[in-house]
Amino acid sequence: LCTGLIERIGTNEALIRHKILATEPGLTIERKGTIADHTEGLEQMLQLLSDTETGLIHSADDIQVVGHRVVHGGERFAKPTLITPSVKEAIKVLFPLAPLHNPINYQCIEIAEITFPRAKQIAVFDTAFHQTLPAYAFRYAIPDTLYVHEGIRVYGFHGTSHKYVCGKAMTWLQKPDAKLISIHLGNGCSMTAVRAGQSIDTSMGFSPLAGLVMGTRSGDIDPAVIFHLISLGYSTDDVNTLLNKQSGMQGLTGLSDMRDIGKAVAAGNRSAELALEIYAYRIRKYIGAYAAVLNGLDALIFTAGVGENDSAMRERICSALD
Length: 322
What we know:
- The chain is an alpha+beta fold.
- The protein has helices at 38-49, 85-93, 102-115, 135-138, 144-148, 159-173, 224-231, 236-245, 248-253, 258-266, 270-294, 304-309, 311-318, and strands at 2-7, 14-20, 27-33, 65-70, 81-82, 120-125, 179-185, 189-195, 198-202, 299-303.
- A four-stranded mixed β-sheet has the order 9-8-7-10, with helices on both faces. A three-stranded antiparallel β-sheet has the order 1-2-3, with helices on one face. A three-stranded mixed β-sheet has the order 4-6-5, with helices on one face.
- Helix 10 (258-266) packs across helix 11.
- The longest helix is centred in the last third of the chain and has 25 residues, at 270-294.
- The N and C termini lie far apart (43 Å).
- The mean pLDDT is 93.
């Protein structure tokens, strides 16, 4: 009936795009302005759904099911799950493992429970697709007790995205046993090696911080850098904030949105050009590693905001893979 997107939350340049598909011709509503946080964004989206002139629902009771993408499900959740108080508590326990996402996912669940009290709330976990990783891929070389008692392992993320695009690729290739590398490039970035529809390795790890260079996240970094920063006077919270919110493209250029970085490159900004090369180089390294893990390759798949729409970045990555 409709689809929508809210971008640049937390800025005064936020954009809401709401497309109504149920009418002929279709109608697109766009709003620009300040959206302080995800709570405000969700409230504005709900206002659009129930607008007296263009809305698609008469009341909250019209909504029977609400699906929530939840980033971290740990080892407990391997499939879509009806949200109960115990499930919510499990999501809260995992806050430290996905500090940018799980708290917001939890907040939106609570807003939806209040807004749609008669609806079933369903959680779909980003980590679920990666439950097929073999132990030699998901274990870290640290004392065994830290896995057994603390759950420290590779979990992987963006599973809903990787699973969907790989399924589409296998259908398009007419090859159910295809060897695929799925490259999800948005503000968060990850790659997954997929054989016959199953995830066998992925670039994000215990948290969504590992792997590729991202909008505000560093991706892979020598752990000794953390100890060095602490010796310089950084607190653990400072380091956490630095690596999750002040690094990646934001740290390299002062900008986190690839569209803005592209404009900076066009204006002759050499730091922005170097940042794009660092970004592409990290992806090429992972492509090489995953081609080895798969022992061959049928297709590369690009998805998410940057992967789908930035043809210049796709060319930058692939031109050196001849």
